[in-house]
Every structure is written in structure tokens, then in C-alpha cells.
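A quick word before the example. In earlier lectures we treated sequence and structure as two separate objects. From today on, think of them as two lines of the same record. Here is CTPxI written that way.
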Amino acid sequence: MSGNRVEVGRPAPLFTRTAVVDGRLKEISLSAYTEAAHWVVLVFFPKAWSFICPTEIKAFSSRLEEFLYSRSCAVAFVSTDSEHCLKSWNGHDETEGGLGGVHVPLISDCDHKMSREYDVLIEEEGVAQRALFIIDPKGIVRSITINDADVGRSVDETLRVLDALTFKDEYGQGCPVDWKKGEAGIDIASKSRAEGGVDLKKKSWGEWARPKLDRAWSAASQKSITSNNLASISSRLRAGSNDKLSPVNSGERSGQHSSMSSGRESPMFSPTSNGVQGQMDKALLQQRFENMQAALANQSMNQSQGIGMAN
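And the structure line, produced from the sequence above:
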């Protein structure tokens, strides 16, 4: 196992391995690709003469020019099979379960060293996971994906991520969801400066969001309720009253305390809230109570109509 864990943003483990290249055995290395300023898509697969693996290899091979000539990116597949096994597999016709002569290099990792260094070896089975690494021309890992053994990779998605990485490196812009080559990016740096950014280490979410939420509330809604109103409505609703709710009942006018004022506050109301936050809490809770009041009134009316019909 490599001393350094393979992660995005860290150097990829170097390798020099024997591979099947266009039907011949050849030594290839990561440094040879990076010295030529190539990106590398390094694709590990479980084993030769299987079912899912040939579909991936043939798909990538059929579109190899899109990687090599349009993006200066090499593609190589790796398994723990011997080089002779891979050569035989590539040389056999597709009707016999072979690859029929693909052009992507098939790297042999029969001593399992490379799979261990990339942290993708399944030790008990002696095969590699279905993992894919995108490595930039500086030899830095920029993307890692690992699929279930029975789920193949997508050529289109690999190209999309590769395009996004090269776009980011060239223009310094981020790529939003489902970004595709030719689309605009997002200037993260300038947007952060314009909006002031969000420093989560110095500001809580509430402190950052409160001014933005405050603009969504009208002056009327902010002043439409007091804590005494809420205490009265909350107390009567908990008591199960079907009577029409008034803003303040006579008991509270005489100084009696409701269940809310005795410490059983609604989870949406803070007894210590004040200012903007308090007004927003009150307005939101008032709306909830008005909805509940309307529901009780409808229920009372329906019950009255039901009794009348029964008589």
C-alpha cells in the first residue's frame, strides 16, 4: 500500500507497467504521459473475459479520438490479469467473448502493486474495483469515481468532467450542475467579492440570513402581533376551545398567565427574541394560529350543519 492515500488534489502514484497496445506488449508509464502534457483517464476494471468490462473498454476505444485529439488525454485500462491473458482477450473475436482488437492500452497489474497504490484492490478477491481516475498533466488526481462491480462507467460523463476540469484550469471559473463544454462558467471569485461571501467561521447562519429574510416581511406583518396575543391564542388552542378566538381574553387582561407564558413555548417562538428576529417569529406564528383558527371555525360550522340535518 502506498504511504500516501490517493485523493483528489494529491499526486497520483507513479507506475511503469507492461500493457497490451494495439496487440503488442509495451512498457508504459504515467510520467511518459505527463511529460507529454497529457491528461490521463486511468480506468481500473475487475477482470478479463467478463461481461460488463468489455462493454466499457469497447465504448471508450471507439471514442478514443475524442480524448486524444480533442482533449490531449490518454485513456488506459488496468486489471490484475496477466499481460498474456489481456493479449489473448484482445486478440479474440467478439463472437468468442474477446475484445476484437481495441486500441486503448490494457495494463497488466498481475502483482497487484498498482491496484494497492491506488487503493482500489479487493484483497480477498485479488481484483480491482471498478474505479476511474482523471489525472492532470502535472500528475495530480482531479477526479475519482468508484462504481458497483456490476455498473459500468459512462464515456459521456467522463468527457464532461474532463472538459469541466480543463475549463476550470484555463478560465479559473467553476462549472455548475450538468455543465457541458461550450457553456458559461461561474466566476466564483468575483461573485464572492461582490456578495461579501459567507464566512461561516465568523457568522452563524442566522446572523447571515436575518437581513435577507427581513426584507421578505412587510412592515404590517412585523407589527401585527404581540407576545400577549400569541400567549392568549396558544393557551386557548391547547385548551381545545371551539369558540371564536379573540386577540386578548379577560383573564389575560387581569394578569393571568397562559401555558406559553409559564414556560411551555412553541418551538417556533423564543421568549427571549426581540427586534427583527422577534417580529419575524411573531408574524410567522400569528399566521399559523390564524390558519388553525379558520380550521376550527370550519369544523364548528360543519358540526352545526350536521346536527341540523340530523334533527
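Notice the following. The chain is about 40% helix and 15% strand. We will return to this example when we discuss secondary structure assignment.
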